[in-house]
């Protein structure tokens, strides 16, 4: 009897099938709303002031040329025929959907919007242990940026760190104050440059 039950059980198990897993896609290639761009690790990143953005409008007759622009200080970009649109703080997918909504159905019945951006970087130079280009991975500050370059050298002048914006604006940052009070720790954006100068030689070799 036990052998019969075992055989029956094996037969039933063989008849079972695993449930089929069907990937969900409301409209393959566009996400169902005319906004293209596969969700990647960059999708979670949010645009910041200074980012360079390229917007392509396609799927229409006589499409306009690709639009390339750096996100302005007010966080917006300006595309043809529509009011400035907020880009700062949005993911790639969110910005595509917002652009699509501005054009459809007011200007077009159908439209494909493609947004792309260059890798976002800032630069830390001078008296840090690993100077050079650093990838901008999200909200950061002068102290965090210097930490990403493996911190100050022993000869760094921490009181006179120079932050240069992408537009050329320069600000002196006292990192001693910034370490004690975060209000002095200025935010860093893509395209910015941080220069950590050398301390006065007479203070370096003071006994």
Q: What is the CATH-assigned architecture of the largest domain?
A: Roll
Helix/strand order: HEEEEEHEEEEHEEHEEH
Q: What is the makeup of the main sheet? A: 5 strands, mixed
How many structural domains can be distinguished in the coordinates? 2
The tally of beta strands, per DSSP, is 13
Segments where pLDDT lies below 50 for 5+ residues? Answer: 1-33, 36-44
Task: State the fourth-level CATH superfamily of the largest domain.
Answer: Outer membrane lipoprotein wza domain like
Q: CA-to-CA gap between the ends? A: 95 Å
Structural class of the helix and strand makeup?
A: alpha+beta
CATH class of the largest domain: Alpha Beta
Any idea of the CATH topology of the largest domain? Outer membrane lipoprotein wza fold like
Number of helices: 5
Helix share, percent: 10-25%
Q: Please list the strands of the largest sheet in the order they lie side by side.
A: 8-7-13-10-11
Structural notes for this entry:
This protein has 207 residues and is an alpha+beta fold. It has 2 domains: 35-117, 2-Layer Sandwich (wza like fold); 121-204, Outer membrane lipoprotein wza fold like. Helices cover 21% and strands 24% of the residues. The chain contains 5 helices and 13 strands. The protein has helices spanning 2-15, 92-103, 142-148, 175-180, 201-204, and strands spanning 35-36, 52-58, 67-70, 76-77, 85-86, 112-117, 121-126, 132-135, 140-141, 161-164, 170-173, 187-188, 193-196. The strands form 4 sheets. It has a 5-stranded mixed sheet. Strand 2 (52-58) and strand 3 form a beta hairpin. The termini are far apart. 24% of the residues are buried. The model is unreliable at 1-33 and 36-44 (pLDDT under 50).
């Amino acid at each position: 009897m036990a052998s019969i039950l075992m055989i029956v059980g094996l037969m039933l198990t063989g008849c079972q099938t695993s449930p089929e897993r069907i990937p969900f896609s409301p409209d393959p290639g566009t996400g169902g709303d005319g906004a293209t761009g596969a969700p990647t690790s960059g999708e979670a990143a949010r645009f910041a002031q200074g980012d360079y953005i390229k917007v392509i409008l396609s799927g229409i007759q006589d499409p306009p040329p690709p639009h390339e622009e750096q996100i302005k200080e007010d966080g917006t970009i300006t595309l043809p025929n529509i009011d400035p649109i907020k880009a700062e703080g949005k993911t790639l997918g969110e910005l595509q959907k917002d652009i699509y909504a501005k054009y459809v159905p007011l200007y077009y019945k159908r439209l494909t919007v493609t947004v792309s951006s260059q890798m976002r970087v800032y630069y830390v130079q001078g008296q840090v242990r690993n100077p050079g280009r650093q990838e901008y991975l999200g909200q950061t500050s002068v102290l965090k940026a210097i930490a990403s370059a493996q911190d100050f050298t022993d000869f760094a002048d921490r009181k006179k760190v120079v932050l240069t914006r992408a537009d050329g604006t320069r600000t002196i940052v006292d990192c001693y104050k910034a370490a004690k009070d975060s209000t002095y720790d200025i935010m860093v954006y893509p395209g910015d440059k941080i220069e950590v100068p050398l301390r006065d030689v007479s203070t370096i070799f003071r006994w």
